[in-house]
Structures are given as C-alpha cells and as structure tokens.
Amino acid sequence: MFTAAFFAGNRARLRQLFTGTAPIVLTAHGLLQKGADEAFPFHQDRSFWYLTGIDDPEVVLVMDKGKEYLIVPTRETVREQFDGAIDARALSARSGIADILNQKDGWRQLEARLKRVAHVATLAANPPYLEHFGMYANPARAALIKRLKHANPDVELLDLRQHLARMRAVKQTPELAAIQSAIDITIAAMQDVHRPRQFTKYAHEYEIEADLARGFRRRGAEGHAFAPIIASGKRACTLHYLANNGPLASDELLVLDVGAGVEHYSADLARTWAVGGKPSRRQQQVHEAVLAAQAHALSLLRPGVQLRDYEKNMEQFVGEKLRELGLIKSISREAVRQFFPHATSHFLGLDTHDAGDYEWPLEPGTVLAVEPGIYIPEESIGVRVEDNVVITEKGVSVLSSALPHDL
Questions:
Q1: Cα–Cα distance between 245 and 361 in angstroms, integer?
Q2: pLDDT tens-digit profile of 96-130?
Q3: Spatial distance between the Cα atoms of 61 and 316, rounded to a whole number of angstroms
C-alpha cells in the first residue's frame, strides 16, 4: 500500500511545516536485549518509518538544504551471517532516498556540517525511565542527541515532535486503506470465535487469543497489533489485563480488546460478550449504559472539536449513567473515575495509541478509537465497547460498523 512516493511526500510536508534552515536528523530505533544474546522482536520508531519506510535498526536520516541521505550502521561479518546484511539498494528503493552512506563516511559528512550550524532539528528523547508507564524508553534518540552534541556542544536542538504528531494525526488515502484492512481482518476473526458452536467450546481466555492470532495471520495481517486483552469476570476490571489465562465461567462477561496489524497500521476494537450467552439483567444494564455513552461520543465528534473538551463532556455523560446505575450519588471527577478510569478516545494509526495533538482541533481524516467503559470490581462486571472512526467533513464515519455490539 505504501510506495517511495508516500515517504518522500511526508518528508516534503515536514520541510514545509518546519520552516527553519537547520539540518533535520532523525534516527531509527535500536535493538533491545531480551536475554543473553537474544533481542526482542524489532519495533521501528514509527515517526522514522513514516518518513522513510525503513524497518532496519540504527539507520539515521539526514535532511539538509534540499538534500537527504541515510547513514547505515556497520555490521560485523558474524552478525551479518546471523541477521543478514543491510541492502543499500533496497533502502533506496523503499525510501526514495538516493544517497546511502556507510557509518564512517556518513558521520564524517554530518559532523562537518554540524560544526557550522547553530541549530539542528530532531525528535526529543524520552526520559530513560517512563515512570507513568513503568517501562524503559528505547535509547536510540538519546544516543543520537549525545552524538550530535559531541560534534558541536553549542548546537541548539529543535524538537519536531509536535510537527510530526499533527502530520500523523491526519491520515492519507493509503493509511486509511491499511487501517480499514486491519479493521476488516479483526472483525472477521472476532466473528469466527464468536460463532455459537465455536464460542461454547472455549474454556480459557488464551484459547480465544490463539484463535484470533491464527485468524489475523491467515487473512494476511502481521498478527496482533498490540498485546491482546481477553478478560473475563473481575479480570476485565484490570484495564490492561494481559495474562489471558483465566477460566471462562458461564455467568460472567468477557471483554475482548484486540486489533490486527496491517502494514504497521492498527485496528483497535473491543466488544463485551456474555460467556454463557444469557447475560443477567444487571449485566445488560451496564452494557446498555456503555452503548449509550458511545452513541453520545459519536454525536460529539466532528471537525473543530478539541479532545480535551470532548472528554470533559463524556465524563459528565458517563457520570449520569453511573448515577442511574446506583453506583454514585453525585457527579464529580473523582466519583466518575472510580468506575470509568480511562479516556474515551485516542488517536489510532501507526501506533495503537497514535501520535496526535490533544489541544489541536480535529480535522477530516483523523482516525480515533471511541471506547467508553464501566468497571465494577465488586460485582465482577467490566464492560468496554470500542469502535474505530474517521472524522469527515460533516461529522464522523464508523469504520468498524460491521461488528455487532450485542452481548
């Protein structure tokens, strides 16, 4: 779906947004150790891929005065035997960048330029440890910045993150096609596992996870776009429950929050199903409240809306539903977030929680996930319903409307 023209066009748009004359220098991600001599499966920096289409680690992109080139890392012979050599011709064909330089020559050229400039534009590095998420950041950006500063200690860094966030938020035609393909594959696989004769055979959450993975791959997807959530009963109240190994009980609800990946683009859909096929009246009430919240969310989305204001509206609406369910007496942020602890929407695209500016008005072509939920651990009830939508000139179009919402 993606040609060199797509990536070249993205680079041209970045130059238009970034009006300065400073060199632009960006890096691919690096490999991360999994254990001993084994690395985790490689996951490219999505902004780097957006500009180059390249899936190799440690490559550096330089855009300077209308010229552009790639610096490729040097690999020892033994590593090439195990991991393969980097194919310069393939990198050029994929990215549309003619000049591919080896590490020594490329950095010599770049460092000579850095010594003569006051500014260089790049993507700012995250802190080494992201405390909010409880994980370590990929060190590639920090390593690049260290080397840029070593070449010129006085150079001032200009951060391109906001430019790329706004670019990536509005999808182009091939991006929308990839997302729609991922959604269609996800829906087909979910419908496979939810067929009555099949669904009643499952005894554990992991069996559903495995069949979804098979359904994704055999339809041409890369597999799960993110770690799937298959959570039944009280486990569904842990928002990012990933163990997926619990038993299924006929009187419980099951939340599936899953998505296939196609050409790096994600689907992200959630449905809540009654394991035994016959939900209780209370389970139905909670599910109906979540569906009403999603319908309200869809009615709000249109060009010009700011997601910060939208989320405040949704918090009030869900609060009213929580009061109707007898879960809270008065609506306050603290009371509502006890049962609805996450945002209603996030950007969707190359990352499942994709780049975007939450303070910037929505524009046509923006793709969002819309996923209200209500979670009541004391009653072992967790309900989440998630669809993927694109903002249109007049409002919103639901890309995942083919997947039924019923319990």
A1: 41
A2: 999 999 999 999 999 999 999 999 999 999 999 99
A3: 46
Residue 216 neighbours by CB under 8 Å, 6+ apart = 185, 186, 189, 222, 223, 224, 260, 261
Q: Is 76 exposed, middle or buried (0-12, 13-18, 19+ CB in 10 A)?
A: exposed
CA distance 267 to 403: 13
Q: b/e for 118-135, b at 16 or more Cβ within 10 A? A: eebbbbebeeeeeeeeee
Is 225 in a helix, a strand, or coil? Answer: coil
168: region left, alpha or beta (phi > 0 left; psi from -120 to 50 alpha) = alpha
Per the DSSP assignment, residues forming a β-bridge with 269 are 258
Beta strands at 119-122 and 260-262: parallel, antiparallel or unpaired: unpaired
Cα angle vertex 352, ends 345, 90, to 5°? 150
| C-alpha distance from residue 185 to each of 181, 206, 208, 222, 273 (Å) | 6, 19, 15, 11, 19
Residue where the block lists tokens 């950007």:
347
- Per DSSP, the residues of 288-355 read HHHHHHHHHHHHH--TT--HHHHHHHHHHHHHHHHHHTTS-SS--HHHHHHH--S-SEEE-SSSSS--
Cα–Cα distance, 368 to 390 (Å, whole number): 6
Q: Tell me: the pLDDT tens digits for 71-105?
A: 999 888 777 777 788 899 999 999 999 999 999 99
- For the chain, domains (ranges, CATH) are 4-167 (3.40.350.10), 170-398 (3.90.230.10)
Sheet holding 253-258, edge to edge: 229-232, 253-258, 269-274
* Secondary structure class of 356 (helix, strand, coil): coil
If one counts every other C-beta atom within 10 angstroms of the C-beta of residue 375, the result is: 21
Two structure tokens written together for 85: 């050599």
pLDDT in tens, 158-203: 999 999 999 999 999 999 999 999 999 999 999 999 999 999 999 9
- Residues 360 and 161 sit within 8 Å (Cβ to Cβ): no
